[in-house]
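Support request from a user on the community tier.

User writes: "When I paste my structure tokens into the form, the page sometimes reloads and wipes my input. The last time it worked, I copied everything first. Here is what I submitted, just in case something in the input itself triggers the reload:"
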């Protein structure tokens, strides 16, 4: 909205010419989201306390989580608002990719919202059945996958990091890959969201990585030089990633240990899905596995635990996801979170290295 107003003014006043640049608008989106999140979050914390939107200790968590009982939840609502408003202010609203990612954020946020509300009403803290959530996730992803597939000029080739000449074209089967990536990432972030600040940290590192990749993919000269797919219009997603980054930083201020507000499924499901769709659009599907390696590790720990117990009758970890394993080993919560952040930062650097190692 502001983008169009200021872009129009640049015709008469050259000083407004700076608003044409994606880099400048990305910085504005980061700052706008940060300020909005920073001031909106304490207001919502007070409201959630008034409305008794508070978490309860679940039976399947370590005993030390009893101290978290009564902490307001559904903080993902604040992240979504703080992401979407700056995106609408500073991005080109004629760009279909902006609307597709916004749709994903809202739809998956809606799934998470239903789950959070049901958990609040259930005495044991149980939300929407996993199968029901999965059906909704697959449905919305199929819609997005079909929209992208039918969009003229959309590339169904798959980028393989470190290899510039390996780009298999999946054709219509690309839609199935979309389902796997979006649903997997969404639930991966959800599984990671178990300790104060644990999930939002890796989300921020992935956002930071994708700001650069989205900008490069949307610039034909940089894309050709770096030998990555050029995706016309993908540069505008750098602004959305920037808004998500700013919103996440503002949220982290209140989510760091001891958390004053939890993300809830409203945030984890939507953020995971949003990052996945951005990766799909900018043609960095496999790179998401590297940059978002923490989410992969958390998900694999659950899969390994379930399969091991089912086939061998034994558990590999003391508790899954793996961050609970370290809790039961006696690690301090802050130590677990910071070490996971460090790993996420290293993985982000590895993802960035793929730009030259081809």
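"...and here is what came back when it finally went through:"
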């Amino acid at each position: 909205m502001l983008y169009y107003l200021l872009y129009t003014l640049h015709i008469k006043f050259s000083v407004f010419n700076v608003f044409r640049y994606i880099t400048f608008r990305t910085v504005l989106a980061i700052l706008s989201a940060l300020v909005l999140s920073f001031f909106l979050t304490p207001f919502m914390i007070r409201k959630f306390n008034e409305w008794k939107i508070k978490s309860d200790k679940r039976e399947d968590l370590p005993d030390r989580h009893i101290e978290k009982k009564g902490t307001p939840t559904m903080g993902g609502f604040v992240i979504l608002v703080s992401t979407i408003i700056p995106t609408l202010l500073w991005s080109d609203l004629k760009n279909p990719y902006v609307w597709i990612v916004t749709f994903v954020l809202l739809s998956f946020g809606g799934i998470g919202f239903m789950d959070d509300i049901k958990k609040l009403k259930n005495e044991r803290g149980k939300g929407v059945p996993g199968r029901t959530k999965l059906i909704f996730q697959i449905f919305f992803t199929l819609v997005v996958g079909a929209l992208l597939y039918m969009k003229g000029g959309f590339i169904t080739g798959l980028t393989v990091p470190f290899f510039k000449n390996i780009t298999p074209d999946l054709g219509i089967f690309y839609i199935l890959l979309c389902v796997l990536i979006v649903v997997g990432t969404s639930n991966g972030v959800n599984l990671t969201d178990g300790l104060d600040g644990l999930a939002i940290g890796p989300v921020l590192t992935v956002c930071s990585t994708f700001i650069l990749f989205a900008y490069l993919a949307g610039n034909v000269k940089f894309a050709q030089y770096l030998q990555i797919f050029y995706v016309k219009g993908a540069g505008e997603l750098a602004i959305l990633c920037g808004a998500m980054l700013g919103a996440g930083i503002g949220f982290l201020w209140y989510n760091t240990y001891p958390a004053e507000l939890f993300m809830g499924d409203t945030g984890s499901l939507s953020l995971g899905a949003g990052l996945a769709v951005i990766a799909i659009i900018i043609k960095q599907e496999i790179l998401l596995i590297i940059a978002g390696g923490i989410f992969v590790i958390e998900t694999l720990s659950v899969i390994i635990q379930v399969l091991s117990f089912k086939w061998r009758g034994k558990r590999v970890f003391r508790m899954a996801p793996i961050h609970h394993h370290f809790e039961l080993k006696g690690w301090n919560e802050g130590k677990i979170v910071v070490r996971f952040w460090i790993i996420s930062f290293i993985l982000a650097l590895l993802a960035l290295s793929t730009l030259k190692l081809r």
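Agent notes: The reload is a front-end session timeout and is unrelated to the input. The mean pLDDT is 91. The longest helix spans residues 22-50. Escalated to web team.
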